[in-house]
Design goal:
589 residues; eight-stranded mixed sheet; 20 strands; 24% strand; globular
Length: 589
């Protein structure tokens, strides 16, 4: 940085900058005609430390001299067709990049109408109503409690999304597709990624806007945020065809650029997302992840991570998903990338509510002991608020609670345990909706009633929470190489599941999940060759009650439990295509 400051004072660029800037003169035509080749030519001009665990071939892109001048981060910007390159060092935060006049992403296409743009920016008017697209219900494990004694009980609060008005046109989306083009992507994989990207482009509506970012050791914006009319689709397809593979892997560089695009856009569709697809290992990004995910949250832009093949960085991608509260999708069969993308985009196309705040307030001196949820929550006094980023059509979110109920007042036949309500943005009505409060209550009896059966829905959610915890604990033990401990965790959970008084469809699906978990961690080879990714995918799915699609593994297995969370606009292949079309998408003309 001292060198950079000295150069600025004398009016001369820091060492290395001249070389890079001069490279743009002879390469500008190549960048236009052969962007993948020119990109690698720039990256191979300098030596850059590759990820230690990487076995990828190709040039390691970055400028050592520029890296020194900028404190370890090399950045190249140029205005030719909106291309921009970032290269990240393992020891430096992305915030330490020298600003450049050309690093400007305010060239996104305008939305079809000024009114749509204004609506996207405007804060909806509050409307306390019960006519919104979400509803809140409550249940208690046992409908009757014994009076005169303290006891702990389980309750369930469910937020259910409706399908919305029939034939309603879906919300247009802003998507940034972040594609790994590192050396390990050579051959069939890069072709499969191109095919998946073309599928997304084909399904885009006229109001959708898509940007494409590719990364290896560096990141490049291949396509600015373009409206998907006929001209935009043509350019996007041309750029997709020209993608080429080579170099190392820096997921952080790709995410940083995608976030910059989202942060700097002049116009905003109501639904936005970043889709990150990679097959490689990246030891640099973990230290950058907290800041990157903070930026994603501030931009209201969820990040969906897709890892394909057995050797991708499942720990990193699952950490992205955990912090973003989105699915981590393991695509074991690389020929199924398109189906995975289709499920994610199909779900995003059906978003009906955003910024859901579920409020829980204990009643009648009842203590809210534990709230089982993967979503962030905060507590003020006796009220707990859970923040859910968004909900697809027909989706549900179940919040299991543990309550401590004091000895009842004599003669009181009904006791209120909890008050629940939700406040959210209804995208169809473009307004803030406050649901009416719903009371969780139970009867009080003088004598125990042993014949009373537990509520089936509460039992199912208790089992989901228990299985999710077991999967996470087993994954942690397997990461430490303690496979005997991991298997015992699964065995103990399986034993409790089989002792359930009633075997339901949910119980059977969750039990099958445990069977598949055993196979994932039976030994180190199984764990390292896809088991880790498979298990983390499953744990995240059950944790947030969302998945991308039902995919068949390379061995022909099909995860039955995914059907518990698949929405009506998510499916594989041609069915996903039909669902997206049915959601009100009119094709670009």
């Amino acid at each position: 940085m001292a060198a950079a400051a000295a150069a600025a004072a004398t009016g001369a660029p820091p060492n290395g900058i001249v070389a890079v800037q001069c490279l743009f003169v002879p390469l500008w035509l190549s960048v236009w005609l052969f962007p993948g080749v020119a990109f690698e030519a720039l990256c191979s001009t300098f030596s850059f430390p590759q990820a230690p665990n990487s076995t990828e071939t190709g040039a390691n892109a970055a400028a050592a001299d520029i890296s020194k001048a900028t404190g370890g981060v090399a950045v190249w910007d140029h205005a030719l067709q909106g291309h921009m390159l970032h290269a990240a060092s393992p020891n430096v935060n992305l915030d330490d990049v020298l600003p450049t006049a050309e690093s400007d992403f305010t060239d996104d296409d305008p939305l079809p109408t000024a009114a749509a743009s204004a609506a996207a920016f405007a804060e909806p008017e509050p409307d306390a109503s019960s006519s919104g697209v979400l509803s809140v219900t409550t249940r208690v494990e046992y409908s009757a409690l014994v009076s005169g004694m303290s006891q702990d009980v389980y309750g369930l609060v469910t937020v259910q999304a409706g399908t919305g008005p029939l034939q309603a046109e879906r919300q247009p989306m802003d998507l940034v597709v972040v594609l790994d083009v590192s050396g390990s992507m050579m051959g069939d994989r890069i072709s499969q990624v191109k095919d998946a990207t073309r599928f997304i482009l084909d399904q885009a509506c006229r109001g959708d806007r898509i940007s494409i970012v590719s990364f290896n050791s560096c990141a490049r914006r291949d396509l600015r945020l373009r409206i998907m009319d006929a001209v935009g689709k043509d350019e996007a397809n041309r750029i997709t065809t020209l993608l080429s593979a080579g170099g190392g892997t820096s997921i952080a560089a790709g995410m940083d650029m995608a976030l910059s695009i989202m942060e700097q856009r002049r116009h905003k569709n109501k639904v936005s997302a970043i889709l990150v697809l990679t097959d490689g290992q990246d030891s640099w990004t973990a230290s950058q992840l907290p800041k990157l995910m903070q930026r994603a949250a501030a931009a209201s832009c969820p990040v969906y991570a897709f890892g394909f093949g057995s050797d991708h960085d499942a720990v990193l991608l699952s950490a992205i998903a955990e912090q973003a509260k989105t699915p981590f999708t393991f695509v074991e069969d690389t020929s199924k990338i398109r189906e995975a993308f289709a499920g994610a985009v199909g779900g995003l196309s059906s978003i009906v509510a955003q910024r859901v705040q579920l409020s829980l307030t204990s009643q009648s001196q009842v203590t809210l002991k534990v709230v089982h949820t993967a979503f962030p929550s905060q507590q003020r006094g006796g009220e707990t608020t859970i923040m859910i980023p968004d909900m697809f059509a027909s989706e549900r979110r179940d919040v299991l609670v543990e309550l401590s109920v004091p000895a009842a007042v004599q003669g009181q036949q009904q006791i209120s345990l909890l008050l629940a309500s939700a406040r959210y943005v209804d995208l169809q009505q473009n307004c803030l909706v406050q649901t009416p409060p719903v009371v969780m209550e139970a009867m009080q009896l003088e004598e125990p009633q042993p014949e009373i059966e537990p509520d089936e829905e509460v039992t199912a959610q208790r089992e989901r929470v228990e299985v999710t915890r077991a999967l996470n604990d087993a994954a942690a033990a397997s990461d430490r190489g303690q496979f005997d401990v991991a298997l015992q965790v699964i065995e103990d959970c399986d034993g409790r599941m089989k002792k359930a008084k009633k075997q339901t469809a949910a119980n059977r699906s969750l039990t099958l999940e445990l069977v598949e978990a055993r196979e994932s961690m039976r030994n180190r080879e199984a764990w390292e060759s896809g088991g880790r990714a498979e298990l983390r995918d499953a744990a995240q799915m059950h944790s947030i009650q969302r998945t991308t699609s039902v995919l068949e593994g390379a061995g022909g297995s099909r995860r039955a439990s995914r059907s518990m969370y698949l929405s009506e606009t998510q499916d594989d292949g041609s069915e996903g295509h039909k669902a997206m079309q049915a959601s009100g998408c009119s094709q670009a003309t």
